[in-house]
Specification:
Layout: H1 6-11, E1 20-21, H2 23-32, E2 41-48, E3 60-64, E4 75-78, H3 81-89, E5 94-96, H4 98-105, E6 113-116, H5 121-125, H6 128-131, H7 149-157, E7 160-164, E8 170-177, H8 182-198, E9 209-216, E10 222-224, H9 226-236
Parallel strand pairs: 1-10, 4-5, 4-6
Antiparallel strand pairs: 2-8, 2-9, 3-7, 9-10
Helix pairs in contact: 2-8, 8-9
Protein backbone atom coordinates (compact mmCIF):
# COMPACT_ATOMS: atom_id res chain seq x y z
CA UNK A 1 0.00 0.00 0.00
CA UNK A 2 1.31 3.46 -0.87
CA UNK A 3 2.22 6.04 1.74
CA UNK A 4 -0.70 8.22 2.77
CA UNK A 5 -0.44 11.99 2.39
CA UNK A 6 -1.10 14.32 5.33
CA UNK A 7 -4.47 15.21 3.78
CA UNK A 8 -5.46 11.56 3.45
CA UNK A 9 -4.41 10.83 7.03
CA UNK A 10 -6.49 13.78 8.23
CA UNK A 11 -9.61 12.45 6.51
CA UNK A 12 -9.19 8.88 7.75
CA UNK A 13 -11.75 7.99 10.39
CA UNK A 14 -14.13 10.80 9.45
CA UNK A 15 -16.19 8.49 7.24
CA UNK A 16 -16.93 4.89 8.20
CA UNK A 17 -15.54 2.85 5.27
CA UNK A 18 -18.23 0.19 5.80
CA UNK A 19 -21.18 2.57 5.98
CA UNK A 20 -23.48 3.17 3.00
CA UNK A 21 -25.26 6.46 2.40
CA UNK A 22 -28.20 7.69 0.32
CA UNK A 23 -27.04 9.42 -2.86
CA UNK A 24 -27.81 12.93 -1.62
CA UNK A 25 -25.84 12.43 1.61
CA UNK A 26 -22.94 10.75 -0.22
CA UNK A 27 -22.64 13.73 -2.57
CA UNK A 28 -22.73 16.14 0.37
CA UNK A 29 -19.97 14.23 2.18
CA UNK A 30 -17.75 14.11 -0.89
CA UNK A 31 -18.11 17.86 -1.40
CA UNK A 32 -17.37 18.56 2.27
CA UNK A 33 -14.13 16.57 2.10
CA UNK A 34 -12.93 18.04 -1.21
CA UNK A 35 -10.63 20.57 0.44
CA UNK A 36 -7.68 20.64 -1.96
CA UNK A 37 -6.49 23.94 -3.38
CA UNK A 38 -7.70 22.95 -6.86
CA UNK A 39 -11.16 22.06 -8.14
CA UNK A 40 -11.18 18.31 -7.52
CA UNK A 41 -12.85 15.90 -9.90
CA UNK A 42 -15.70 13.89 -8.40
CA UNK A 43 -15.28 10.27 -9.47
CA UNK A 44 -17.57 7.27 -9.28
CA UNK A 45 -16.50 3.62 -9.08
CA UNK A 46 -19.07 0.96 -9.93
CA UNK A 47 -18.10 -2.63 -9.15
CA UNK A 48 -20.01 -4.94 -11.52
CA UNK A 49 -20.67 -8.66 -11.38
CA UNK A 50 -19.18 -9.23 -14.84
CA UNK A 51 -16.12 -10.88 -16.31
CA UNK A 52 -14.67 -8.56 -18.99
CA UNK A 53 -12.65 -11.47 -20.41
CA UNK A 54 -15.89 -12.59 -22.04
CA UNK A 55 -16.84 -10.41 -25.03
CA UNK A 56 -20.54 -10.49 -24.12
CA UNK A 57 -19.77 -9.05 -20.65
CA UNK A 58 -17.54 -6.20 -21.78
CA UNK A 59 -19.78 -3.38 -20.56
CA UNK A 60 -19.18 -0.09 -22.35
CA UNK A 61 -21.09 2.88 -23.64
CA UNK A 62 -21.46 6.63 -23.87
CA UNK A 63 -23.60 8.97 -21.81
CA UNK A 64 -24.20 12.72 -21.80
CA UNK A 65 -24.00 14.17 -18.31
CA UNK A 66 -26.78 16.76 -17.74
CA UNK A 67 -24.49 19.17 -15.89
CA UNK A 68 -21.43 18.51 -18.06
CA UNK A 69 -18.04 17.33 -16.83
CA UNK A 70 -16.47 20.62 -15.85
CA UNK A 71 -13.43 19.56 -17.84
CA UNK A 72 -12.03 20.97 -21.07
CA UNK A 73 -12.00 18.07 -23.52
CA UNK A 74 -9.23 18.00 -26.11
CA UNK A 75 -10.51 16.45 -29.33
CA UNK A 76 -8.58 14.88 -32.21
CA UNK A 77 -10.40 14.26 -35.48
CA UNK A 78 -9.21 12.02 -38.29
CA UNK A 79 -10.70 13.47 -41.45
CA UNK A 80 -9.70 14.87 -44.82
CA UNK A 81 -10.78 17.47 -47.34
CA UNK A 82 -14.20 19.05 -46.57
CA UNK A 83 -14.70 16.98 -43.41
CA UNK A 84 -11.34 18.16 -42.09
CA UNK A 85 -12.41 21.76 -42.70
CA UNK A 86 -15.71 21.04 -40.94
CA UNK A 87 -13.89 19.58 -37.92
CA UNK A 88 -11.63 22.62 -37.69
CA UNK A 89 -14.61 24.97 -37.91
CA UNK A 90 -16.39 22.99 -35.17
CA UNK A 91 -13.46 23.54 -32.81
CA UNK A 92 -11.46 20.31 -32.91
CA UNK A 93 -8.05 20.69 -31.27
CA UNK A 94 -6.25 18.43 -33.75
CA UNK A 95 -7.31 17.50 -37.27
CA UNK A 96 -5.42 15.31 -39.70
CA UNK A 97 -4.92 12.01 -41.45
CA UNK A 98 -1.64 10.20 -42.00
CA UNK A 99 0.25 13.10 -40.41
CA UNK A 100 -1.83 12.85 -37.22
CA UNK A 101 -1.48 9.06 -37.20
CA UNK A 102 2.30 9.44 -37.34
CA UNK A 103 2.26 11.70 -34.29
CA UNK A 104 0.13 9.19 -32.39
CA UNK A 105 2.53 6.38 -33.28
CA UNK A 106 5.34 8.48 -31.79
CA UNK A 107 3.39 8.79 -28.54
CA UNK A 108 2.20 12.36 -29.07
CA UNK A 109 -1.25 11.89 -27.56
CA UNK A 110 -2.32 15.39 -26.58
CA UNK A 111 -6.06 14.72 -26.62
CA UNK A 112 -8.84 13.11 -24.59
CA UNK A 113 -11.24 12.00 -27.34
CA UNK A 114 -10.82 10.71 -30.89
CA UNK A 115 -13.39 11.09 -33.67
CA UNK A 116 -12.98 9.70 -37.16
CA UNK A 117 -14.91 9.73 -40.40
CA UNK A 118 -15.61 6.22 -41.78
CA UNK A 119 -13.21 6.65 -44.72
CA UNK A 120 -10.34 7.28 -42.27
CA UNK A 121 -10.75 4.05 -40.33
CA UNK A 122 -8.12 2.16 -42.38
CA UNK A 123 -5.63 4.74 -41.06
CA UNK A 124 -7.01 4.80 -37.52
CA UNK A 125 -7.29 1.01 -37.38
CA UNK A 126 -3.49 0.74 -37.45
CA UNK A 127 -3.38 2.72 -34.21
CA UNK A 128 -5.40 0.19 -32.23
CA UNK A 129 -2.46 -0.92 -30.06
CA UNK A 130 -1.82 2.69 -29.08
CA UNK A 131 -5.34 4.07 -28.75
CA UNK A 132 -7.14 0.92 -27.57
CA UNK A 133 -5.49 0.53 -24.13
CA UNK A 134 -6.21 4.20 -23.45
CA UNK A 135 -9.88 3.85 -24.32
CA UNK A 136 -9.48 6.27 -27.22
CA UNK A 137 -10.24 4.03 -30.20
CA UNK A 138 -13.18 5.42 -32.23
CA UNK A 139 -16.23 3.19 -32.34
CA UNK A 140 -19.32 3.59 -34.55
CA UNK A 141 -21.55 2.22 -31.76
CA UNK A 142 -20.40 5.08 -29.54
CA UNK A 143 -20.88 7.72 -32.21
CA UNK A 144 -17.18 8.48 -32.60
CA UNK A 145 -16.98 7.06 -36.14
CA UNK A 146 -19.28 9.33 -38.11
CA UNK A 147 -19.57 11.72 -41.01
CA UNK A 148 -21.37 14.20 -38.76
CA UNK A 149 -18.18 15.44 -37.15
CA UNK A 150 -19.78 18.69 -35.99
CA UNK A 151 -22.35 16.88 -33.86
CA UNK A 152 -19.74 14.46 -32.51
CA UNK A 153 -17.53 17.37 -31.44
CA UNK A 154 -20.47 19.22 -29.88
CA UNK A 155 -21.48 16.09 -27.95
CA UNK A 156 -17.95 15.61 -26.66
CA UNK A 157 -17.74 19.24 -25.56
CA UNK A 158 -21.20 19.13 -24.01
CA UNK A 159 -20.51 16.59 -21.27
CA UNK A 160 -20.45 13.28 -23.08
CA UNK A 161 -18.56 10.61 -21.15
CA UNK A 162 -17.40 7.23 -22.36
CA UNK A 163 -17.40 4.38 -19.85
CA UNK A 164 -15.86 0.94 -20.08
CA UNK A 165 -15.49 -1.85 -17.55
CA UNK A 166 -11.89 -2.58 -16.53
CA UNK A 167 -10.22 -5.96 -16.01
CA UNK A 168 -11.44 -6.30 -12.42
CA UNK A 169 -15.04 -5.56 -13.36
CA UNK A 170 -15.02 -1.92 -12.26
CA UNK A 171 -16.23 1.13 -14.14
CA UNK A 172 -14.46 4.38 -13.21
CA UNK A 173 -15.73 7.73 -14.47
CA UNK A 174 -15.66 11.40 -13.61
CA UNK A 175 -19.10 12.85 -12.88
CA UNK A 176 -18.24 16.50 -12.42
CA UNK A 177 -16.22 18.82 -10.23
CA UNK A 178 -16.32 19.54 -6.51
CA UNK A 179 -17.42 23.10 -7.40
CA UNK A 180 -20.66 21.73 -8.88
CA UNK A 181 -23.69 22.06 -6.63
CA UNK A 182 -25.16 18.95 -5.04
CA UNK A 183 -28.08 18.72 -7.45
CA UNK A 184 -25.77 18.86 -10.49
CA UNK A 185 -23.62 16.03 -9.14
CA UNK A 186 -26.67 13.93 -8.30
CA UNK A 187 -28.06 14.41 -11.82
CA UNK A 188 -24.76 13.33 -13.34
CA UNK A 189 -24.46 10.27 -11.10
CA UNK A 190 -27.99 9.17 -11.98
CA UNK A 191 -27.37 9.68 -15.72
CA UNK A 192 -24.31 7.41 -15.58
CA UNK A 193 -26.09 4.91 -13.34
CA UNK A 194 -28.98 4.70 -15.80
CA UNK A 195 -26.58 4.16 -18.71
CA UNK A 196 -24.81 1.36 -16.82
CA UNK A 197 -28.16 -0.31 -16.18
CA UNK A 198 -29.09 -0.13 -19.87
CA UNK A 199 -25.73 -1.68 -20.78
CA UNK A 200 -26.33 -4.75 -18.60
CA UNK A 201 -25.32 -7.96 -20.42
CA UNK A 202 -28.25 -10.32 -20.96
CA UNK A 203 -26.45 -13.36 -19.54
CA UNK A 204 -25.73 -11.96 -16.07
CA UNK A 205 -27.13 -14.06 -13.23
CA UNK A 206 -27.74 -12.64 -9.77
CA UNK A 207 -26.90 -9.07 -8.82
CA UNK A 208 -25.45 -6.95 -11.62
CA UNK A 209 -23.97 -4.23 -9.40
CA UNK A 210 -21.95 -5.15 -6.31
CA UNK A 211 -20.88 -1.77 -4.94
CA UNK A 212 -20.86 1.92 -5.87
CA UNK A 213 -18.46 4.43 -4.38
CA UNK A 214 -18.04 8.17 -4.80
CA UNK A 215 -14.96 10.26 -4.04
CA UNK A 216 -13.11 13.40 -5.01
CA UNK A 217 -9.55 13.40 -6.35
CA UNK A 218 -7.95 13.81 -2.92
CA UNK A 219 -10.87 12.90 -0.67
CA UNK A 220 -12.03 9.67 0.99
CA UNK A 221 -14.40 7.24 -0.68
CA UNK A 222 -18.09 7.13 0.24
CA UNK A 223 -20.27 4.08 -0.46
CA UNK A 224 -23.69 4.72 -1.97
CA UNK A 225 -26.77 2.72 -1.02
CA UNK A 226 -27.83 0.73 -4.10
CA UNK A 227 -31.52 0.69 -3.17
CA UNK A 228 -31.51 4.48 -2.83
CA UNK A 229 -29.78 4.81 -6.21
CA UNK A 230 -32.45 2.71 -7.88
CA UNK A 231 -35.22 4.67 -6.16
CA UNK A 232 -33.63 8.00 -7.07
CA UNK A 233 -33.34 6.92 -10.69
CA UNK A 234 -37.05 6.07 -10.83
CA UNK A 235 -37.99 9.34 -9.15
CA UNK A 236 -35.94 11.32 -11.70
CA UNK A 237 -37.82 9.89 -14.70
Amino acid sequence: MGKLSKRQKATQGKIDPEAVFPLAEAVKLVKEHATAKFDETVEISINLNVDPRHADQNVRGMVSLPAGTGKKVRIAVFAKDAKADEATAAGADLVGGDDLAEKVQKGEINFDRVIATPDMMPVVGKLGKVLGPRGLMPNPKLGSVTNDVTKAIEDARGGQVQFRVEKLGIVHAGVGKASFNEDQLQQNVLALWSAIQKAKPTGIKGSYVKRVGLSSTMGPGVKIDLADLAASEQASK
